[in-house]
Write a structure and sequence with these properties.
heterodimer; A: mainly alpha; extended; B: 934 residues; five-stranded mixed sheet; 26 helices; 22% strand
């Protein structure tokens, strides 16, 4: 830091002397210059290059001090260094892709978020100044400013800022600026949507009370138009636009434009330019459900979700839906779905999923039909499921933590691995010891159907009938 | 496995990265990224927004001023890996050249020269032997018959020396003789063809240099913490490498107290290669520890029970260096291994290796790095595999068909140009489907269910790429903590994030920088400059691993972070959770009131209950003792005085730390530092047999002819030479060149040998002698009463001595001197030297000739006893050998034939420059003793 300050000291007198020179034009006067300033002058003229280098060095040192203070959460110290660093704006020769003005913006904002003595007013003031610092960054700074206002609950100020930013024009826009502008519009649309829904709630309350307010209704429609235009724009561009899509669909549904809504959701879910966002499929499924679409289309929507995210929580719904189906193929798919879900570590202790599986397995075993379904599913899992799900350690832990989970798992283990399986043995033993009736039933059931295990785990043969 | 109902908005592009690359300082600050509606309640009056970055996080504060060593250094010193200055070319010319191009130049010739000098047999073995007769290394001219077949090498060597002196001179080519010689024998002289050798050397140098720039073999880190099975006991196991070559694997039990301490001896395994990575995972209550060295990978199992012995399970050998080893968190005994040839294996202890993929090319675009990585995912059969360009997930059951891209360096994740994957890590313990990817610029959190789009991205701004990462999952509702560690700069960064299932992922709180190992340097006791340098070198060694654990007892939550350095040191720091919003009280209070400290700390220095005789190494709990507290306090004072200098140094080295943290280490930490330092100096000391200064044979150094000189020297010269010879013969030291009646003996002042030494000079002398530490200890443990008594005693003796010394050359005075010496040596050996001058000057008062006359007799005295044939016979030495032995021993007895000794002429002595007059023979007093025996 010292060098940084020295730099300043050296600077100031030079300017003073130069100024005097200009004023006193005669050479005699020049010779009579007051010697006062001279000692401050550097003894040897520093070459301009070296000067720049020193300046750069001290700038870098200052930056690293700021960084250090920020990382240690010493906001006051960081603020002090930042005030020194602001000088670097004056001679900004840098060609780095993050220039001093951006650094000042970033660090300043960070400090003002955390500094104990900063207020929202100061922050706004600072951000306004930062907006003027760089044309290229104007929209970005605006967006960040808006985000901060939104997080602090100042929705109206945020809205004003968004409108201002939207009307900003500066020559040719770069691709990034274009994106930022779209985002600004989208966020404005989002805020319009919130105003719309507020008005809607008022209107609904009023209509319950029996009177209608046409002014409110007018206003509401105005918000709808503004929101819809902006939201519609952004969701055309590939990206993750969950909130925007949700709001837009909500608007459309309210005004009864179901076709448009369906189209939007289909586009969002199935356009290959968009990322494989599970939420897109979830929204579509929920929309279809709301529309009371036939089972078939619900199943096909979930089937696609299953293909991209087999571990999604909707797979339980999917499985129940498929199990109820009369078609063999669908029931078979249900078994596949639940097996696939239980492959994932996140489902390991999900009692619901295990009960789905145990119910379906039990059904199949009792009916003695379609044992080959189980066999096929089991084939690709028999080398790792026992260690993954049915170890003795897990038996102990599941028994301690969740009895019903261990019951379901023990049933599946007993059927898939036979009555000699460690998991089944431990749990049934504990269950019988604890005099629990259903565990005794479980033991009986597994013992009765023990031959099934041999058929499931045996080599593929033709004796198993579909 | 819920998926967040709404994610933060983001654009999704495809293709190569658009954004311009480059290190961007401060790029991670001041941004919220995006906001999302997600308030605590639904449908409030106003929607509540949460930011992607900038939400409040937990407050964690460092409990101590710096990291504290956990393990004491083991014997055997660390050999630092090469530094840039070892392999780079340095010279003025080069600097000029480099200013333009900013490229490092490897010092190829120097290294090749080193090879020739260090391995002459390998370099020139056979031809060297063949031509041995034809190379002449003497100075004299060659005789006529030999000249035809022999080359005189001396001239060539001179030329080489001259060339060395002119290094960097543009007119180097003038050394024609060398050119001629090298042209002549370049093709046949070398054992290994020179071109081939040079190629190999160059390759090795390039390898070393690229390792210096970025060493990815350490990726993942070689430190693991195995937490206790039941949360109740605070004893875990630290798995770390050690030994000079880092090829020993230790399983060390560590008790987590205020300062973690080791318990019992570690289980130790010697491996056949340097340990690069230690990975661990707990499955079904058993810990599986995978260890990777370059060509071998091994797996150990540690049962969860305490006191269990680690059992080695299996070792595999790879032809190509392995670059990754991770342990499955799902299935016991499963690991994944990658080699630099681009092969990924699933390694099961039961079924062996299964190759999942073999592709020497990188996945998404071409990158030269052979580094590969692989880890597990939420599905136990699906493995991720990574190279510098991105990550893919493969199904082990059908690796060719079933795979998807998880992360791509490209526009999809909003990467910068030039960005590369540095370390991927499965975050399964925080959320089953989350993944961490670090690059040199940013850190990403990915969700397998939404591949390619990072759910979190943040520019970490670290100076070196984060090679180590550690996850500490938070309980539901609390944030997950991720530690990032860099190797070369030892940076440690703590990040917090939350979300992933009910809510979208967001960064919580600001990132926090933690203490690095090097940061404790300023809190260590002051060292001598050379020791300070060594210590600095050791403490700034690149980090090699990272481990951490969360500890909760009741409301008191704390985090322990272990950091391993390449030197094998494990340092640890504790962060405490601060639930309250106002800033925490100074950490020192916390440290002293915590369990593990004791009220004895507050006992004043002169407490009667101090157990004065105890040594602190004896017991771990010794830091409760009050007298040790005294020592610590003293040292802290001392540190305070020398702090400005050290601080200035530190400022220069790491300008990132302008103001060292104000807290001082807690007493327990300070003690630990001292203990560590002592163990370090003991471990790095050379074996005691070599501590004396090397001696030279004097007969070899000067022949008699040399010493006599060709022409008659001046009398003074002769005299001096004689003294020199005399002293040399005795292996002594000359302190005064001209003591002979030139300087009046400064008796009265010099009579205060040690009592008069002020503490500063005593300390300095002790410091120079190298046992400053001991001096401190003695000084502090020396009770006042004892010291007073000693002082009185000395005073009395001095009085007596003064009385006697007025008699010239009395034996008793030297006797007192001797006893005084032995007595004084209690206070420190270094006070010896100031005690000598008086005696010397005393001796100088008789005519100068006398010591010289005495000398042969005195030195011969013990030898004569040996030489007498009787005594030799007594010793059972056979007759024929006696002569040899006598000759041999007489060498020590006989001086060169003495020229008649002229009495020193005063005039000529005056010519001696005064600067030399300080020297005198220190060995002279010793000669007195034998005389006493007569």
């Amino acid at each position: 830091m010292d060098s940084f300050l020295e730099e300043e000291d050296e600077e100031a007198p030079t300017v003073v002397v130069a100024g005097k020179r200009r004023r006193r034009s005669s050479p005699a006067a020049q010779a009579l210059q007051p010697p006062l300033h001279l000692p401050f002058l550097p003894l040897q003229p520093v070459s301009s290059n070296e000067h720049k280098l020193n300046f750069r060095k001290s700038k870098e040192a200052c930056l690293s001090f700021i960084q250090d203070a920020l990382l240690q959460k010493e906001w006051k110290r960081a603020a002090e260094f930042l005030t020194c660093y602001i000088e670097s704006l004056e001679k900004d020769y840098s060609r780095e892709h993050i220039g001093p003005s951006e650094m000042i913006w970033r660090t300043g904002a960070e400090i003002l978020w955390h500094h104990s003595q900063s207020s929202m007013k100061e922050f706004n003031c600072f951000m306004e100044q930062m907006k003027t610092l760089g044309v290229k960054r104007y929209l970005k700074v605006c967006l960040e400013h808006v985000f901060h206002l939104l997080c602090n609950g100042q929705i109206d100020e945020a809205y004003q800022n968004l409108s201002l930013a939207e009307s900003w024009r500066f020559g040719e826009q770069t691709a990034i600026q274009d994106k930022e502008m779209k985002l600004i519009q989208a966020y404005r649309g989002l805020l319009d949507y919130y105003s719309w829904s507020k008005q809607k709630n008022i209107l609904l309350e009023n209509s319950e009370d029996g009177f209608s307010d046409s002014a409110v209704e007018q206003e509401m429609h105005g918000y709808f138009r503004k929101a819809a235009v902006n939201l519609k724009e952004i969701i055309k561009i590939p990206g993750v636009w969950d909130i925007f899509v949700k709001c837009y669909v909500d608007l459309l549904e309210f005004y009864g434009d179901h076709n448009e809504a369906r189209q939007v959701l289909n586009e969002y879910a199935y356009n290959s330019k968009f990322p494989a966002n599970p939420n897109a499929h979830v929204y579509l499924y929920q929309f279809l459900k709301r529309q009371r679409e036939p089972k078939k289309s619900l199943i096909s929507a979930l089937k696609i979700l299953h293909d991209i995210v087999p571990s999604h929580e909707l797979m339980i719904d999917f499985n129940t839906m498929l199990q109820k189906s009369k078609k063999r193929k669908k029931r078979r798919l249900g078994l596949e779905v639940i097996f696939a879900a239980l492959d994932y570590a996140g489902w390991k202790e999900n009692a619901k999923a295990w009960s789905c599986l145990s119910r379906q397995v039990k059904q199949i075993v009792i009916s003695e039909k379609h044992l080959d379904w189980i066999k096929q599913e089991w084939n690709s899992r028999k080398d790792w499921w026992p260690a993954f799900h049915f170890s003795r350690y897990l038996a102990k832990r599941n028994w301690q933590e969740n009895k019903s989970l261990s019951y379901e798992k023990a049933l599946v283990a007993g059927i898939l691995l036979g009555k000699g399986c460690k998991y089944f043995k431990y749990v049934s033993h504990q269950g019988c010891k604890a005099q629990l009736k259903r565990f005794r039933m479980l033991k009986k059931f597994v013992n009765r159907h023990n031959p099934v295990y041999l058929r499931i785990s045996g080599p593929p043969d033709s004796s198993v009938q579909p | 496995m819920e998926f967040p109902a709404a994610l933060f908005p983001s654009y999704f592009g495809a293709g190569p990265p658009q954004e311009e690359g480059g290190p961007a300082p401060l790029a991670g600050w001041g941004e919220h990224g995006q906001v999302l509606e997600g308030g605590p309640g639904r449908r409030q009056v106003q929607p509540a927004f949460v930011p992607r970055r900038g939400a409040t996080g937990e407050r964690w504060e460092a409990a101590d001023a710096a990291a504290v060593p956990v393990l004491l250094p083991r014997a055997g010193c660390w050999i630092p890996s090469p530094a840039p200055q070892d392999i780079l070319y340095r010279s003025g010319l080069c600097k000029k050249l480099r200013a333009g191009k900013s490229r490092a130049i490897l010092d190829f010739t120097r290294q090749l020269g080193h090879f020739f000098v260090d391995h002459p047999e390998d370099a020139f073995g056979s031809l060297g032997r063949l031509l041995h007769k034809n190379f002449y290394l003497g100075n004299s001219k060659l005789q006529r018959p030999a000249r035809s077949s022999t080359i005189r090498m001396t001239a060539l060597v001179e030329d080489i020396d001259r060339l060395e002196a002119r290094r960097g001179c543009p007119r180097q080519h003038l050394a024609s003789r060398l050119r001629w010689f090298s042209h002549l024998c370049r093709d046949w002289l070398f054992e290994v063809p020179l071109g081939l050798l040079a190629d190999c050397l160059h390759e090795e140098l390039m390898q070393q240099w690229s390792n210096l720039l970025f060493d990815d073999s350490l990726t993942g880190g070689a430190l693991a913490w195995l937490p206790p099975e039941d949360r109740g006991t605070p004893v875990g196991c630290l798995v770390h490498p050690g030994g000079q070559a880092m090829n020993h694997l230790y399983f060390q039990d560590v008790v987590l107290e205020e300062l973690p301490r080791t318990r019992g001896a570690p289980a130790q395994f010697e491996l056949s290669g340097r340990i690069q990575q230690v990975a661990a995972a707990r499955v079904d209550g058993q810990d599986f520890v995978g260890v990777r060295s370059d060509y071998h990978c091994g797996v150990w199992r540690l049962l969860g029970k305490r006191g269990a012995v680690p059992t080695p399970l299996q070792v595999i050998h790879t032809d190509v260096p392995a670059s990754c080893l991770t342990v499955s968190p799902h299935l016991p005994g499963e690991l994944s291994v990658c080699t630099q040839s681009g092969t990924v294996y699933l390694w099961s202890v039961e079924t062996g290796l299964q190759q999942l993929r073999h592709d020497p090319q990188t996945m998404f675009f071409r990158d030269h790095s052979p580094w590969r990585w692989s880890d597990f995912t939420a599905h136990p059969r699906v493995l991720s595999c990574a190279d510098r360009t991105g990550l893919q997930c493969l199904d082990a059951r059908a690796p060719k068909r079933c795979h998807f891209d998880l992360f791509k360096v490209g526009e999809e994740a909003g990467c910068q140009q030039g960005e590369r994957v540095v370390l991927p890590m499965y975050l399964g313990r925080a959320h089953p489907s989350q993944y961490l990817v670090t690059t040199q610029f940013s850190v990403y959190v990915l969700d397998e269910r939404l591949p390619l789009v990072p759910v979190l991205k943040w520019a970490h701004m670290m100076k070196a790429p984060p090679l180590f990462a550690h996850l500490m999952p938070g309980k539901p509702g609390r944030s997950h903590k991720v530690l990032l560690g860099a190797s070369r700069t030892q940076e440690l960064l703590l990040l917090q994030y939350r979300g992933g299932s009910q809510s979208a992922c967001q960064l919580a709180g600001t990132p926090q920088k933690l203490h690095s190992i090097a940061g404790c340097l300023q809190h260590l006791p002051t060292q001598l400059p050379h020791r300070h340098h060594l210590l600095q070198q050791r403490l700034t060694a690149p980090a090699a691993g990272l481990a951490a654990t969360l500890q909760e007892d009741g409301l008191h939550k704390s985090m322990l972070i272990f950091q391993l350095s390449e030197a094998g040191d494990v340092f640890c720091q504790r962060l405490t959770h601060n639930a309250a919003q106002p800033p925490a009280p100074p950490s020192r209070d916390e440290a002293t009131t915590a369990p593990g400290s004791s009220p004895l700390f507050e006992v004043p220095a002169s407490s009667p209950q101090g157990l004065a005789g105890e040594e602190e190494e004896e017991e771990e709990q010794t830091f409760y003792l009050s007298n040790l507290e005294v020592i610590i306090d003293d040292e802290e004072e001392d540190m305070g005085t020398s702090a400005p200098l050290e601080e200035a140094e530190l400022l220069q080295e790491r300008c990132a730390n302008p103001q060292p943290s104000p807290a001082v280490p807690s007493p327990a930490a300070a003690l630990q530092y001292r203990r560590w330092l002592r163990a370090l100096s003991r471990a790095c000391k050379e074996p005691p047999g070599h501590t004396w200064s090397p001696s030279l044979s004097q007969r070899r150094l000067f022949t008699r002819k040399d010493l006599e000189g060709p022409v008659g020297p001046s009398s003074l010269q002769r005299q001096m030479r004689q003294r020199l010879r005399q002293t040399m013969k005795e292996g002594g030291l000359i302190q005064h060149w001209a003591p002979l009646a030139l300087q009046p003996p400064p008796l009265p002042q010099a009579l205060e040998p040690a009592g008069g030494l002020d503490p500063l000079s005593a300390r300095l002398t002790a410091a120079w002698a190298g046992d400053w530490e001991q001096w401190w200890e003695e000084r502090t443990s020396f009770s006042v009463a004892k010291r007073q008594q000693a002082l009185r005693e000395r005073r009395r003796r001095q009085k007596r001595a003064q009385g006697r010394r007025s008699l010239s050359a009395s034996f008793t005075s030297s006797l007192t001197y001797q006893s005084e010496l032995s007595e004084l040596s209690d206070t420190g050996p270094s006070v010896l030297s100031p005690g000598r001058p008086p005696l010397l000057s005393q001796e100088a008062s008789p005519p100068a000739g006398s010591p010289l006359v005495h000398s042969p007799a005195t030195s011969a005295a013990p030898d004569e006893a040996l030489l007498s044939s009787q005594s030799l016979r007594c010793r059972g030495i056979p007759k024929e050998r006696r002569k040899t032995l006598r000759d041999y021993l007489s060498v020590w007895a006989e001086g060169p034939p003495e020229p008649p000794e002229p009495l020193g002429s005063q005039a000529s002595q005056l010519c001696i420059p005064s600067s030399q007059s300080q020297l005198s023979s220190a060995s002279q007093p010793r000669r007195k003793r034998p005389r006493m025996g007569f």
